[in-house]
Amino acid sequence: MYTAINWAMDLGFYAGFSALTCTLWWILGRRADRKWLQARTHVMRAATDAASASGQDHSHLTVSKALPLIYRRSRDTGALLEREENPDTPRTAEIPVVSATASSMWRLPRALPLAWILYLAGLLIFVLLPIPSDPQAACAAILHWDNYMPFGSLNAVADQLRDGETLRGTLYALSIVLNIALFMPLGALAEMAWRIRRSRKASESLPDDGGRLTRAIPTQRVLVWLLIGTLLSCLIEFTQYTGLFGLVPCTYRVVDIDDVITNALGTYLGVRLLPLFARNSRFMGNEAS
Fold this sequence. Notes:
It is built from 9 helices and 2 strands; from the N terminus they run ααββααααααα. The chain is mainly α.
């Protein structure tokens, strides 16, 4: 029951933090969208003025009407080819452009900083909080169930379920699953940040369907993210073992070697599942900048 109460407190605190962070992100994103739209409008007006000065006014065209004037479909391959023979063909800059909506700020890669902030904040909250308000009393009342034997937590769950402690065993099993899920975003975000940085450095665009993110991930880089996830998990366990580096005069959280194993597994799954999520248009979108 104490574990369930702690989870509820952590979840409530994280929900409040997420709501505040997303509100600030939305405000900043709307301002960025407004500036981008103003810049695009200025470019479109300049192109329209240039076309009017040359005697070719295409401002009345819509996207659906302008594209057939610019492109033709090849009979052999079906590919779109430019209509160079038409002297009145409007330039691409003269076509009305539909501006990016504010919802694009919630999609990757634009929302990558927000995803990192929410993830790291959640990681700190769920593994370190709540801190006992009365450390001395809390340390005196804590019953330590530390585990230093690999996969010992699985045996503990089996023993609790066999002894009829269904609720306790279920919560313990749920904590194992959550330890895996907690580190899955780390692997996915690390690989995503790496690929987005490489694409920007190479001046490549990132398509809506995930583009470079859907490609196979080299085994060597998977091992790098796995090592980083394992070291981070070890740091968390050490922080819990030392009572937040002496802030609490005892080990106020359970230290479990299986946490390191499940966290490493979660990091690996996050890296491997990234291409699957990258193909989902709910997560990917063009940047509005």
